[in-house]
Design goal:
single chain, about 475 residues, Immunoglobulin-like, 37 strands
């Protein structure tokens, strides 16, 4: 009995939000471009803890399997692992190759990850626990004339890894060339997939806009999984836009927001619903602004939400605290919060995170592995909670897959199996009537709903009161 209890509590510690525990946090990379640090923000109270761990002055943050990863970029060329359950202390750090300039990391399993390297022509395959190199995948054949493809962001869907290639002309101030691309890598063979078997050779996917720039968003539109990212084209020209990328047919791309409609270069984008998105733009006068837009119509919603007056806005991320915005304004830097329904700035001013904020990673206990679009997207909180006699448990899937949803008691015993089978993509709600398998009423107490799909699991605490 004791060993079963320890197993369940261990699962909860890794996958279950529980107030202010170490699995539920906002982590912010901060920098003045001479030094860098991380700061955390409590998801329940919005209270920050500044300078929790030093990182490079040019770093972005990712999260996977209970650990945070700082991708230390230009001049550092390494991955730094931080443990949220140990005050974000560094537990390991390893090189991605001298002069490699890593940009993104996507995790396949606890022992396999892929890293894009901006200055090289090969994607690095590595063990994210030890830093051991497991191989490389050559994408240099898709470079422009300077020989470097400028690989940037990645995302995973099923057994495919998608890598964005900016293909910039380095002698000409990193200007876009004739086109930018997405390369597809088969994760079973670590080889590039031919995107156009009719044409000779191995082909990448040509993007409808140049210079892919932002991190990748994901949503299911109807039953179709879509990826979203911004392409800025030439900075200062309104030639880019937000690209909707059909993952069931990658050749199908749609520009859902043009830079002309947005009013500037689109530096970052977040899609939060079929009719609501947010973007950071750089205006022709090289100031940054926060706007809202409708992805279904490609039009701006209302007035500009926030314009600090300089080139100050960086990353934006949705969160339980609202839309988080990195504001690097010299006089009052910090993380600002906006209501994602009304677009109004929430009271309290910017959250002071020490150095000016640069990149945000939100882990609210419902996030999937970073960059992985194959997994279940969310296990929602059951409602009502506490409950008597029944409760509803919502979850959503990014694509069809095998799902199990079971109820456990605090000793680790399975009380009821609610789902065990194939489930389609989209939103789902399963009702638990408070009965154990066999029909007996469950006793008053704490229970855990454990949801598993595509090899990943999440858990929520439920309280039955009689």
């Amino acid at each position: 009995m004791k060993s079963l209890l320890l197993i369940v509590l261990s699962l909860v510690a890794v996958t279950t939000p529980a107030g202010a525990d170490c699995t539920q946090f906002i982590l912010v990379s901060t920098t003045d471009f001479s030094s860098g640090s991380t700061s955390s923000i409590d998801l329940g109270t919005a209270v920050p803890t500044s300078n929790v761990e030093s990182i490079h002055s040019d770093a972005v943050i990712r999260y996977y399997n209970g650990l945070a990863y700082a991708v230390n970029r230009t001049g550092a060329d390494n991955i730094q692992i931080l443990d949220p359950c140990d005050n974000f202390d560094t537990v390991n750090q390893f090189s991605t190759g001298n002069g490699s300039n890593p940009q993104d990391i996507v995790f396949i399993s606890p022992t396999v990850a892929y890293v894009t390297r901006y200055e090289l022509g090969t994607v690095l395959k590595m063990n994210p626990q030890t830093g051991a190199t497991l191989g490389t995948i050559n994408v240099g054949a898709f470079a422009d004339a300077d020989g470097i493809p400028e690989m940037n962001q990645m995302f995973r869907f099923g057994d495919r890894l998608y890598v964005t290639l900016q293909r910039l002309d380095r002698p000409n101030f990193y200007s876009p060339t004739d086109h930018s691309s997405v390369v597809i890598i088969d994760l079973d063979t670590d080889t590039v997939v031919d995107a156009d078997p009719i044409a000779g050779g191995v082909q990448a996917i040509t993007l409808v806009r140049t210079n892919p720039y932002s991190e990748v968003n994901y949503r299911t539109v109807g039953t179709t999984p879509m990826a979203y990212f911004s392409c800025v084209g030439f900075f200062g020209l309104l030639d880019g836009g937000v690209v909707q990328f059909d993952l069931t047919n990658p050749a199908t791309q749609t520009v859902i927001l043009t830079e002309s409609a947005a009013g500037g270069d689109i530096l970052d984008v977040e899609i939060v619903s079929p009719t609501k998105g947010f973007a950071v733009i750089a205006t022709p006068s090289f100031t940054t602004e926060l706007i809202a837009f409708n992805p279904s119509t490609g039009t701006k919603i209302g007035a500009t939400m926030y314009a600090p007056g300089g080139y100050d806005l960086a990353d934006i991320e949705p969160s339980p605290l609202g839309l988080l915005v990195c504001d690097r304004k010299a006089t009052s830097p910090g993380v600002r919060r906006f209501d994602m329904t009304t677009n109004a700035q929430l009271p309290g001013g910017p959250i002071n995170v020490g150095l000016p904020p640069f990149d945000i990673q939100v882990n609210d206990g419902a996030a999937t592995a970073a960059g992985d679009l194959a997994l279940a997207t969310r296990l929602g909180a059951n409602y009502p909670n506490p409950f008597n006699p029944a409760t509803s448990i919502p979850f959503s899937l990014s694509r069809a897959g095998h799902v199990t949803l079971r109820v456990y008691d605090v000793s680790g015993r399975v009380v009821a199996t609610l789902v065990d089978g194939q489930v389609g993509a989209g939103e789902h709600v399963v009702r638990w009537d408070g009965r154990a398998t066999g029909g007996a009423l469950a006793a008053t107490g704490v229970y855990f709903a454990r949801f598993s799909a595509e090899g990943q699991s999440e858990m929520r605490k439920m309280v039955l009161l009689k």
